[in-house]
Structure prediction request, 89 residues.
Amino acid sequence: MATPAESDEFNTRSLGLQWQWQANPKATWWFMNTAKGSLRLYSDKMPDSAKNLWDAPNILLQKWPAEEFVATTKLSFTPNSKLENEKPV
Prediction:
């Protein structure tokens, strides 16, 4: 029996099947640095019609591996000085 992809090392050229975008992805939303095993996400302007994050297309989601689990992440946020009101959500 095979198990679903579960590595979050980001050391390959594509995202594992456990990852999915909220909408069809744009190449400007992300950069995979395989040498560092990291994934860089870039912000995008929220659509004017967006009322909450359900309407944001550039959200990267991970399918839950089980009913109960623990997740740990490391995040570095560097605002782009050219963008107005950029912030982590």
The chain has a mean pLDDT of 84. Residues 50 and 65 are 29 Å apart (CA to CA).
